[in-house]
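Field log, afternoon session.

UNIT: design team B
ACTIVITY: writing a sequence onto a fixed backbone
BACKBONE:
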């Protein structure tokens, strides 16, 4: 997600980390890198310049007790960055009525369903109203997604008056804790759209009016957020397509200058691709330091009777069985690439493992069934004749069995690397929230995918 920005920010930070002196020149160099990164993510120049100035000033101010100059500068950079992206504003936990507004294609309908799922998982009974009378297909789209989210649904195909749909919808969805209303967009916020949204809003009695904006807007998001706020009043923002645009940083910073609360970001087309936005977490993610917290949250949410045993994953005792189980559990949490990204491991992951499909995983499962317990725990035993036996027993080819072993070995190497770096990196202050990781493994905790 937004790998570009992350990559560049990481470089800027690394420049600092790796320099032996911490003079003005070094700081200026790092700030320059930072500027380049932010500008290429379409962050407004004025914001970038202000940020640079603040960092430079803070860098050579008095040091807080017990902290070195370098740590101080790095921390300042991180804090200021997180600030311009909007920090963290917790979304309301028990909203009653959310109205989603925005232009065509901003992601309203998709986000309505994603939100329904997000709140459903938090024991909120959610109903959806499809009030896009402009594009009738949107009703069908939302209906299908509502089913996927296990949410109630109301619409009235053929009805041209959105407010009427909403009034009826509220009646039909009586007893639901939260009702989310999807509205129509236009290609611009014109008087017609304003009028329609106002009518829906008054029929609906929104407690929340959230603007949905695509990350590809970049800094233009500012104008859009302001315009929507002035004409209909907006008290929350969701930025979609953070996964597909290099301008996500710009969109975030722009919304932040308007004082808008960015509650969520959309990170994919699927119904689970919605995340509560937290700038610190977002930064550590895109910069590749991993974020176990996000992973844990996601893990808790996936409704599968699979256990992802992080300890086994990173412990030295990583055998074929753990490998298979973990790959299976990880897959259920979403594309493996994303899961690994959250753990900060995507950089080292073999490409073929990131793209491992369901079908292949099933085949791996069959092979595993044809192995003895001993073989699973010690794949070194797998010589030519054993491989032949396994292929035959599982209806696969010897080539595939060898592929499984090869992949397993690669993964083992990745995990070993990952588990071995904590103490050293921690001492050198090289980012990585290893405190969290260590705490988790220290407790020998398994986390269960419900
Ligand atoms: N990659 C990605 N695509 C998204 C995201 N949110 C929405 N989309 C896609 O954007 C397009 C427009 O979304 P839609 O919900 O129909 O927008 P609406 O016109 O505002 O209702 C669809 O193709 C969605 O699949 C997101 O977070 N990431
Ligand atoms: Mg729509």
């Amino acid at each position: 997600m937004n790998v570009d920005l992350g990559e560049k920010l990481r470089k800027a930070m690394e420049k600092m980390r790796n320099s032996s002196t911490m003079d003005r020149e070094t700081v200026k160099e790092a700030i320059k890198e930072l500027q380049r990164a932010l500008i290429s993510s379409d962050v407004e120049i004025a914001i970038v310049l202000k940020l640079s100035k603040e960092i430079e000033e803070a860098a050579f101010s008095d040091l807080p007790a017990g902290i070195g100059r370098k740590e101080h500068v790095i921390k300042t950079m991180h804090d200021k960055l997180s600030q311009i992206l909007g920090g963290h504003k917790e979304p309301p936990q028990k909203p009653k009525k959310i109205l989603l507004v925005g232009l065509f294609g901003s992601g309203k309908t998709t986000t309505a369903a994603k939100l329904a799922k997000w709140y459903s998982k938090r024991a909120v009974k959610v109903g959806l109203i499809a009030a896009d009378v402009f594009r009738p297909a949107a009703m069908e789209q939302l209906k299908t997604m509502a089913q996927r989210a296990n949410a109630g649904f109301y619409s009235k195909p053929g009805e041209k008056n959105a407010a009427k749909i909403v009034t009826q919808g509220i009646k039909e969805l009586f007893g639901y804790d939260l009702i989310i209303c999807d509205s129509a967009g236009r290609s611009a916020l014109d008087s017609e759209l304003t009028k329609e949204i106002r009518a829906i809003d008054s029929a609906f009695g929104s407690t929340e009016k959230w603007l949905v904006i695509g990350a590809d807007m970049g800094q233009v998001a500012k104008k859009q957020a302001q315009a929507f706020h002035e004409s209909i009043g907006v008290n929350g923002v969701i930025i979609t397509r953070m996964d597909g645009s290099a301008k996500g940083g710009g969109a975030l910073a722009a919304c932040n200058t308007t004082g808008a609360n960015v509650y969520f970001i959309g990170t994919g087309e699927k119904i689970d691709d919605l995340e509560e936005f937290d700038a610190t977490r977002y930064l550590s993610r895109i910069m590749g330091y991993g974020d176990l917290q996000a992973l844990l949250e996601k893990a808790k949410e996936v409704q599968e009777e699979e256990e992802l045993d992080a300890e086994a994953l990173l412990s030295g005792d990583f055998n074929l069985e753990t490998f298979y189980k973990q790959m299976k559990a990880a897959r259920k949490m979403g594309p493996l690439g994303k899961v690994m990204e959250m753990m900060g491991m995507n950089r080292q992951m073999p490409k073929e493992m990131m793209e491992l499909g369901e079908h292949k995983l099933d085949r791996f499962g069959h092979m595993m069934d044809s192995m003895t317990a001993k073989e699973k725990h010690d794949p070194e035993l797998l010589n030519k004749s054993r491989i032949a036996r396994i292929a035959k027993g599982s209806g696969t080819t010897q080539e595939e069995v060898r592929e499984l072993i090869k992949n397993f070995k690669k993964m083992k190497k990745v995990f070993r690397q990952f588990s071995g770096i904590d103490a050293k990196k921690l001492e050198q202050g090289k980012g990585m929230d290893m405190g969290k990781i260590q705490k988790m493994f220290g407790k020998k905790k398994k986390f269960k995918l419900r």
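LOG NOTE: The pocket of magnesium ion (ligand 2) is lined by residues 108-109, 132, 138, 182 (CB under 6 Å).
NEXT ACTIVITY: expression trials, pending approval
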